């Protein structure tokens, strides 16, 4: 698989929707994740990321303008012991609860499908990072309709054991802007992961479409110690 420029992937796509990046820094010492949200409607754009415990959640920036909270207010990031869960919806809780009961990542998602927002049927994208005794692996998942047919749910899980330093994978909800929005296709994209969190976060934020971007979360976790650094950027301030 060819390594793609994450910067160019974002700059050349006005609406990838929501996106998850997971990987390992070039020096091999940090596990990395990023999650961003975008919005076309005023309801989707009326959001910020706020820290909650070891994770984050979305909140309405202006509560008086909140319309339907069902698909936009959720906890994208939660931490369960040595596992960090990142998703684009309330399936974060489903994975957390399932893995807490010793289910696998894939088994935990069996009870969920794509979002009920026809005609888009937005895919549910999810990731889990596992750090233990100085080792690190991660997995990503997408649950999507069968080419826009909501009677079938297609389930794909991609697992990355002992990931290579400097490499990561990027998955997002939509191929590009459209009506209806076309779901992501294929494997998560191979992208480069640098050592510097500020540099990485700024590159992501500046590459996202100015009109549609809403919020960005980036976390670097020390594989040896489990300690982490987090950066959140909200368009609404």
Mind explaining what this structure looks like?
The chain is mainly beta and 237 residues long. It has a single domain, classed as 4-Layer Sandwich (Glutamine Phosphoribosylpyrophosphate, subunit 1, domain 1). The protein has 5 helices and 13 strands. The protein is globular.
Largest sheet: 6 strands, antiparallel
Counted beta strands: 13
Indicate the overall shape: globular
Q: What is the residue-mean pLDDT, rounded to a whole number?
A: 97
Q: Structural class of the helices, strands and pairings?
A: mainly beta
Spatial order of the strands forming the largest sheet: 11-10-1-2-12-13
What's the SSE pattern?
Answer: HEEHEEEEHHEEEEEHEE
In terms of per-residue confidence, which ranges show pLDDT below 50 for 5 or more consecutive residues? none
**What is the name of the CATH architecture?**
4-Layer Sandwich
Radius of gyration using CA atoms only: 16 Å
CATH superfamily: Inosine monophosphate cyclohydrolase-like
CATH fold group? Glutamine Phosphoribosylpyrophosphate, subunit 1, domain 1
What proportion of the residues is helical, as a percent range? 10-25%
């Amino acid at each position: 698989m060819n390594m793609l420029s994450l910067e160019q992937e974002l700059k050349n796509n006005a609406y990838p929707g929501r996106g998850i990046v997971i990987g390992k820094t070039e020096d091999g010492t940090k596990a990395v994740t990023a999650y961003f949200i975008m919005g076309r409607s005023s309801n989707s754009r009326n959001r910020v990321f706020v820290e909650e415990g070891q994770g984050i959640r979305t909140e309405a920036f202006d509560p008086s303008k909140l319309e339907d909270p069902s698909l936009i207010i959720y906890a994208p990031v939660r931490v369960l012991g040595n596992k960090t869960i990142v998703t684009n919806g309330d399936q974060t809780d489903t994975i957390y609860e399932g893995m807490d009961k010793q289910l696998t990542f894939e088994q935990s998602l069996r009870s969920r499908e794509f979002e009920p927002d026809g005609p888009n049927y937005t895919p549910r994208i999810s990731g889990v990072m596992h750090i233990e005794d100085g080792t690190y692996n991660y997995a990503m998942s997408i649950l999507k309709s069968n080419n826009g047919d909501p009677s079938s749910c297609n389930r794909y899980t991609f697992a990355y054991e002992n990931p290579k330093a400097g490499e990561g994978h990027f998955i997002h909800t939509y191929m590009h802007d459209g009506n209806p929005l076309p779901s992501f296709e294929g494997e998560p994209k191979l992208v480069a992961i640098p050592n510097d969190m500020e540099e990485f976060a700024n590159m992501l934020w500046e590459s996202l479409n100015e009109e549609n971007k809403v919020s960005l979360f980036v976390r670097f976790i020390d594989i040896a110690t489990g300690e982490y650094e987090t950066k959140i950027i909200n368009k609404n301030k």
